[in-house]
Design goal:
mainly alpha
Protein backbone atom coordinates (compact mmCIF):
# COMPACT_ATOMS: atom_id res chain seq x y z
CA UNK A 1 0.00 0.00 0.00
CA UNK A 2 1.14 3.47 -0.77
CA UNK A 3 0.98 6.13 1.90
CA UNK A 4 -1.20 9.09 1.17
CA UNK A 5 0.50 12.42 0.55
CA UNK A 6 0.11 15.20 3.09
CA UNK A 7 -2.02 17.26 0.71
CA UNK A 8 -4.49 14.43 0.33
CA UNK A 9 -4.59 13.87 4.11
CA UNK A 10 -4.98 17.62 4.72
CA UNK A 11 -7.97 17.79 2.40
CA UNK A 12 -9.75 15.17 4.47
CA UNK A 13 -9.21 16.92 7.82
CA UNK A 14 -12.14 18.69 9.44
CA UNK A 15 -12.13 22.50 9.35
CA UNK A 16 -11.35 22.80 13.08
CA UNK A 17 -8.20 20.72 12.69
CA UNK A 18 -7.13 22.65 9.57
CA UNK A 19 -7.53 25.96 11.41
CA UNK A 20 -5.64 24.69 14.46
CA UNK A 21 -2.82 23.45 12.21
CA UNK A 22 -2.56 26.71 10.24
CA UNK A 23 -2.70 28.84 13.39
CA UNK A 24 -0.04 26.63 14.99
CA UNK A 25 2.26 27.13 11.99
CA UNK A 26 1.74 30.90 12.16
CA UNK A 27 2.45 31.03 15.91
CA UNK A 28 5.59 28.88 15.63
CA UNK A 29 6.83 30.95 12.68
CA UNK A 30 6.24 34.15 14.64
CA UNK A 31 8.22 32.89 17.64
CA UNK A 32 11.09 31.76 15.42
CA UNK A 33 11.11 35.15 13.70
CA UNK A 34 11.10 36.98 17.05
CA UNK A 35 14.03 34.93 18.32
CA UNK A 36 16.01 35.57 15.12
CA UNK A 37 15.28 39.31 15.29
CA UNK A 38 16.27 39.54 18.97
CA UNK A 39 19.55 37.78 18.21
CA UNK A 40 20.16 40.17 15.31
CA UNK A 41 19.47 43.19 17.53
CA UNK A 42 21.89 41.88 20.16
CA UNK A 43 24.53 41.36 17.45
CA UNK A 44 24.03 44.91 16.14
CA UNK A 45 24.24 46.28 19.70
CA UNK A 46 27.54 44.48 20.28
CA UNK A 47 28.95 45.76 16.99
CA UNK A 48 27.93 49.36 17.79
CA UNK A 49 29.56 49.15 21.21
CA UNK A 50 32.76 47.89 19.59
CA UNK A 51 32.59 50.71 17.04
CA UNK A 52 32.14 53.49 19.60
CA UNK A 53 34.70 52.06 22.01
CA UNK A 54 37.15 51.31 19.22
CA UNK A 55 38.10 53.57 16.32
CA UNK A 56 35.78 56.47 17.14
CA UNK A 57 37.05 56.93 20.71
CA UNK A 58 39.56 59.43 19.27
CA UNK A 59 36.76 61.92 18.63
CA UNK A 60 35.96 61.87 22.35
CA UNK A 61 39.56 62.57 23.27
CA UNK A 62 39.91 65.33 20.69
CA UNK A 63 36.72 67.04 21.92
CA UNK A 64 38.08 66.92 25.47
CA UNK A 65 41.18 68.77 24.23
CA UNK A 66 39.34 71.27 22.05
CA UNK A 67 37.11 72.99 24.62
CA UNK A 68 39.80 73.79 27.21
CA UNK A 69 41.89 75.18 24.38
CA UNK A 70 39.04 77.52 23.48
CA UNK A 71 38.84 78.72 27.10
CA UNK A 72 42.56 79.52 27.11
CA UNK A 73 42.27 81.29 23.77
CA UNK A 74 39.40 83.44 25.05
CA UNK A 75 41.34 84.33 28.21
CA UNK A 76 44.40 85.35 26.18
CA UNK A 77 42.24 87.46 23.86
CA UNK A 78 40.62 89.13 26.85
CA UNK A 79 44.03 89.98 28.35
CA UNK A 80 45.29 91.32 25.03
CA UNK A 81 42.13 93.35 24.49
CA UNK A 82 42.55 95.12 27.80
CA UNK A 83 45.86 96.53 26.63
CA UNK A 84 49.56 95.88 26.92
CA UNK A 85 50.00 98.10 29.96
CA UNK A 86 47.80 95.82 32.13
CA UNK A 87 49.37 92.48 31.13
CA UNK A 88 51.38 92.23 34.36
CA UNK A 89 48.21 92.64 36.40
CA UNK A 90 46.01 90.35 34.30
CA UNK A 91 48.47 87.50 33.73
CA UNK A 92 47.99 85.92 37.20
CA UNK A 93 44.25 86.02 36.60
CA UNK A 94 44.80 84.29 33.25
CA UNK A 95 46.79 81.54 34.97
CA UNK A 96 44.08 81.14 37.59
CA UNK A 97 41.35 80.80 34.92
CA UNK A 98 43.21 78.02 33.19
Amino acid sequence: MQSKSFDHKFKNWPIKRKLMYSHGIIIVSTFVLIVVLLCALKYIDNRLVKLYEGPTINTKYSSQLYYPQLDIQRAVNRVLAEGAEHIDENYPQLEKNR
